[in-house]
Amino acid sequence: MIAGAVAAIALASSAAFAAPLKVDAAKSTVGATFKQLNVPVDAKLKKFSAVIDFDAAKPESSKASVDIDVASFDLGDAEYNKEVQKKEWFNAAQFPKATFVTSSIKPSAGAAAGTKYDVAGKLTIKGKSTDVSFPLTVKKEGATQVFDGTLPIKRLTYNIGEGEWKDTSMVADEVSIKFHFVAQ
Prior knowledge:
Layout: H1 2-12, E1 29-36, E2 39-45, E3 48-53, E4 63-69, E5 73-74, H2 78-84, E6 97-107, E7 116-125, E8 128-141, E9 144-154, E10 171-183
Antiparallel strand pairs: 1-2, 1-10, 2-5, 3-4, 4-6, 6-7, 7-8, 8-9, 9-10
Protein backbone atom coordinates (compact mmCIF):
# COMPACT_ATOMS: atom_id res chain seq x y z
CA MET A 1 0.00 0.00 0.00
CA ILE A 2 2.70 2.45 0.95
CA ALA A 3 4.88 1.86 -2.06
CA GLY A 4 1.98 2.51 -4.31
CA ALA A 5 1.38 5.79 -2.64
CA VAL A 6 4.99 6.76 -2.91
CA ALA A 7 5.08 5.77 -6.51
CA ALA A 8 2.16 7.96 -7.26
CA ILE A 9 3.73 10.87 -5.48
CA ALA A 10 7.00 10.56 -7.27
CA LEU A 11 5.32 10.43 -10.60
CA ALA A 12 3.12 13.30 -9.79
CA SER A 13 5.96 15.54 -8.88
CA SER A 14 7.59 15.09 -12.21
CA ALA A 15 5.36 17.25 -14.30
CA ALA A 16 6.65 20.59 -15.56
CA PHE A 17 10.30 21.32 -15.08
CA ALA A 18 13.36 20.00 -16.83
CA ALA A 19 15.27 19.88 -13.53
CA PRO A 20 14.29 17.76 -10.54
CA LEU A 21 11.42 19.29 -8.63
CA LYS A 22 11.41 20.25 -4.97
CA VAL A 23 8.56 18.66 -3.08
CA ASP A 24 6.69 20.73 -0.50
CA ALA A 25 6.08 18.05 2.14
CA ALA A 26 3.88 20.36 4.21
CA LYS A 27 1.44 20.73 1.32
CA SER A 28 1.69 17.22 -0.10
CA THR A 29 -0.27 14.17 1.03
CA VAL A 30 -0.15 10.45 0.35
CA GLY A 31 -2.65 7.99 1.67
CA ALA A 32 -4.15 4.57 1.20
CA THR A 33 -7.80 3.58 1.41
CA PHE A 34 -9.01 0.02 1.86
CA LYS A 35 -12.03 -1.70 3.38
CA GLN A 36 -12.03 -3.67 6.62
CA LEU A 37 -15.27 -5.56 7.25
CA ASN A 38 -16.64 -3.52 4.32
CA VAL A 39 -15.95 -0.22 6.11
CA PRO A 40 -13.56 2.22 4.38
CA VAL A 41 -10.33 2.83 6.30
CA ASP A 42 -7.96 5.69 5.48
CA ALA A 43 -4.26 5.58 6.28
CA LYS A 44 -1.54 8.19 5.82
CA LEU A 45 1.96 7.64 4.52
CA LYS A 46 4.07 10.15 6.40
CA LYS A 47 7.70 9.60 5.26
CA PHE A 48 8.85 9.40 1.68
CA SER A 49 11.51 10.70 -0.67
CA ALA A 50 11.13 11.33 -4.37
CA VAL A 51 13.53 12.05 -7.20
CA ILE A 52 11.65 13.46 -10.19
CA ASP A 53 12.94 14.76 -13.47
CA PHE A 54 10.08 15.86 -15.73
CA ASP A 55 10.01 17.72 -19.02
CA ALA A 56 6.45 18.66 -20.06
CA ALA A 57 7.66 19.22 -23.63
CA LYS A 58 9.05 15.66 -23.74
CA PRO A 59 7.24 13.65 -21.05
CA GLU A 60 8.47 10.39 -22.58
CA SER A 61 12.01 11.29 -21.47
CA SER A 62 10.87 12.04 -17.92
CA LYS A 63 11.57 9.77 -14.98
CA ALA A 64 10.79 9.49 -11.31
CA SER A 65 11.54 7.27 -8.35
CA VAL A 66 10.02 7.18 -4.90
CA ASP A 67 10.97 5.50 -1.64
CA ILE A 68 8.45 5.16 1.17
CA ASP A 69 9.31 4.37 4.74
CA VAL A 70 6.93 1.50 5.56
CA ALA A 71 7.08 2.37 9.27
CA SER A 72 5.39 5.71 8.44
CA PHE A 73 2.10 3.94 7.59
CA ASP A 74 -0.36 5.58 9.99
CA LEU A 75 -3.86 4.25 10.65
CA GLY A 76 -4.45 6.80 13.40
CA ASP A 77 -4.05 4.29 16.24
CA ALA A 78 -0.73 3.25 17.82
CA GLU A 79 -1.79 -0.41 18.30
CA TYR A 80 -2.94 -0.76 14.67
CA ASN A 81 0.23 0.94 13.45
CA LYS A 82 2.31 -1.56 15.44
CA GLU A 83 0.27 -4.48 14.05
CA VAL A 84 0.76 -3.56 10.36
CA GLN A 85 4.55 -3.50 10.83
CA LYS A 86 4.56 -7.22 11.70
CA LYS A 87 5.65 -10.02 9.37
CA GLU A 88 2.06 -10.85 8.30
CA TRP A 89 1.53 -7.33 6.98
CA PHE A 90 4.45 -5.14 5.84
CA ASN A 91 7.27 -6.98 7.60
CA ALA A 92 8.96 -3.62 8.18
CA ALA A 93 11.98 -5.21 9.89
CA GLN A 94 12.94 -7.10 6.71
CA PHE A 95 11.42 -4.71 4.12
CA PRO A 96 11.65 -1.16 5.53
CA LYS A 97 11.05 0.55 2.16
CA ALA A 98 8.48 0.40 -0.60
CA THR A 99 9.62 1.81 -3.93
CA PHE A 100 8.31 2.95 -7.27
CA VAL A 101 10.35 3.67 -10.41
CA THR A 102 8.79 4.93 -13.63
CA SER A 103 9.20 3.15 -16.92
CA SER A 104 7.11 5.62 -18.94
CA ILE A 105 5.17 8.86 -18.70
CA LYS A 106 2.96 9.65 -21.70
CA PRO A 107 0.29 12.24 -22.44
CA SER A 108 -3.19 10.72 -22.07
CA ALA A 109 -5.08 10.33 -25.33
CA GLY A 110 -7.69 13.02 -25.86
CA ALA A 111 -6.64 15.06 -22.80
CA ALA A 112 -5.77 18.75 -22.85
CA ALA A 113 -2.05 19.19 -23.50
CA GLY A 114 0.07 19.10 -20.34
CA THR A 115 -2.74 18.19 -17.93
CA LYS A 116 -3.20 14.40 -17.98
CA TYR A 117 -0.63 11.64 -18.27
CA ASP A 118 -0.52 7.87 -18.21
CA VAL A 119 2.24 6.66 -15.92
CA ALA A 120 3.73 3.17 -15.83
CA GLY A 121 6.46 1.72 -13.68
CA LYS A 122 7.67 -0.91 -11.26
CA LEU A 123 6.20 -0.99 -7.74
CA THR A 124 8.02 -2.97 -5.05
CA ILE A 125 6.43 -3.74 -1.71
CA LYS A 126 7.63 -6.37 0.75
CA GLY A 127 10.24 -7.56 -1.76
CA LYS A 128 7.70 -8.25 -4.52
CA SER A 129 7.91 -6.16 -7.73
CA THR A 130 5.12 -5.75 -10.27
CA ASP A 131 4.34 -3.51 -13.23
CA VAL A 132 1.68 -0.90 -12.44
CA SER A 133 0.05 2.01 -14.24
CA PHE A 134 -2.20 4.90 -13.28
CA PRO A 135 -3.50 8.24 -14.56
CA LEU A 136 -1.87 11.44 -13.37
CA THR A 137 -3.40 14.93 -13.46
CA VAL A 138 -1.10 17.96 -13.45
CA LYS A 139 -2.05 21.60 -12.97
CA LYS A 140 -0.11 24.77 -12.42
CA GLU A 141 -0.92 26.94 -9.40
CA GLY A 142 1.28 30.01 -9.34
CA ALA A 143 4.90 28.90 -9.10
CA THR A 144 3.97 25.34 -8.14
CA GLN A 145 2.89 22.23 -9.97
CA VAL A 146 0.14 20.13 -8.40
CA PHE A 147 -0.01 16.41 -9.17
CA ASP A 148 -3.00 14.28 -8.28
CA GLY A 149 -3.61 10.62 -8.86
CA THR A 150 -4.82 7.29 -7.58
CA LEU A 151 -2.91 4.03 -7.96
CA PRO A 152 -5.10 0.94 -7.49
CA ILE A 153 -3.34 -2.17 -6.21
CA LYS A 154 -4.22 -5.57 -4.79
CA ARG A 155 -2.62 -6.08 -1.36
CA LEU A 156 -2.33 -9.86 -1.75
CA THR A 157 -0.15 -9.38 -4.84
CA TYR A 158 2.49 -8.06 -2.42
CA ASN A 159 1.76 -10.58 0.40
CA ILE A 160 0.32 -7.82 2.57
CA GLY A 161 -1.88 -9.75 4.95
CA GLU A 162 -0.58 -13.30 5.26
CA GLY A 163 -1.98 -16.27 7.16
CA GLU A 164 -5.44 -15.60 8.53
CA TRP A 165 -5.28 -12.08 7.01
CA LYS A 166 -5.50 -13.47 3.46
CA ASP A 167 -9.24 -13.64 4.05
CA THR A 168 -10.59 -10.80 1.90
CA SER A 169 -13.92 -10.82 3.75
CA MET A 170 -12.03 -9.28 6.68
CA VAL A 171 -9.71 -6.89 4.82
CA ALA A 172 -10.48 -6.30 1.13
CA ASP A 173 -7.81 -7.04 -1.46
CA GLU A 174 -8.35 -3.71 -3.25
CA VAL A 175 -6.34 -0.73 -2.04
CA SER A 176 -6.32 2.77 -3.52
CA ILE A 177 -3.18 4.80 -3.04
CA LYS A 178 -4.09 8.45 -3.42
CA PHE A 179 -1.70 11.35 -3.68
CA HIS A 180 -1.75 15.12 -3.85
CA PHE A 181 1.71 16.35 -4.55
CA VAL A 182 2.86 19.98 -4.58
CA ALA A 183 6.28 20.79 -6.06
CA GLN A 184 8.28 23.52 -7.73
